[in-house]
Fold this protein.
Amino acid sequence: MTDKILNELTDEELILEFQRNGTIGAYEILVQRYKNPLINYVFRFLGDYEACVDIVQETMIKVYRYKDSYSSIAKFSTWIYTIAGNLARTEYQRRKRRKIFSINSYGDEKDETYEIPDESFDPERITDSSIKEKIIQDALEKISKAYREVVILRDIQDLSYEEISEITNLPVGTVKSRINRGRAQLQKLLKDIYKE
Amino acid sequence: MIDEKDQEFDGVIKILKGLHQVKAPQNFEADLMRRINAGKYSEEKSESWFSRFFAPKRFIPSAALAIVAVLILFVIKPGSNTIENPFNTKPRLREDMITTTNQMSEEKKIDMELQKMLEPNKDNGSLKQKSEVAKADAKGENDYNIKDFQTDKAGSSYASENVEAVSSPSVSNYYVIDKSGLNFRQVNLTKTERMEINRLKANLMQFMKENNLK
């Protein structure tokens, strides 16, 4: 199959192609489609860019290695988000145990590969937006892990309640209540930004 | 469809949605493919147990262990005479026991001679003489034996028990055993202890006198 045809396929069709024929092109397209959403999700959850890149790469390796364990009953997006979420949670627990949890890593290190989008030439505006982002990221990291995960999936990743329910393996009602509790906590933490 | 709760947290939702999208680094795919190729994540071929066993990482240590075991087997022979097996050794000869048993046979001989002498046909004078001689001989030998025990096996309870068990019946027939011949524990009393014992003795005697006790 040519790349043009592969690009037109859905995620589920691509993974089936990779499963059945071992087409690396299909796998590469899946990586291309999901690398940024997953990086965004894991980064918002952990707050560490290098760690989040590692986790997403690990997720992609797992998809490559255990491609046969994917069943076409589930959506590919929920499957890959579940893998990434599990790895991110494990990393979070490991960091918590070792107490090397770094919430300020992005922007401080010299080797930082994180790129601030260059949307404006006004340096004050850039500084202002990056400070706000940092405050929001800090607030996200302050709320409970269970709430944070579902809030990110819902309000940042724009996933449906059903998809979140599948990813987190929780009932839809629990997902909704956790999202609202998380939002309430964030509202308290971000009240200064509201005033602005 | 927007929930009522969504409207309640509209501000938070807007802030979160306004966050910029974090993107993967440019070399993400290249790094990923390098990791995949380095790890060889293709399906692993199952090896047979034979090839697993003879793999150098397993075969070398197991072969070394086997060689060491064989060497130990040859160096330390299980049937070697240098190691004394207590179950295979003969019991040691107890010379004192032999002496005692010989003594017993001597005593039996004396008994038989005495019985012959006590027969009615024979005269009483010769009987007395012979019995005295026999007693004297027996006493002398017995004394020798007891002393021998005391010097050789004074500390051994087994030896002293044997002496009593073997020789005492015959000794009790003919000889009077005094205190020095026995293996008593000799207690050396101090002066004050002796005085105390004497005082107790005097008290006891007085008590017996007063109550007309023998």
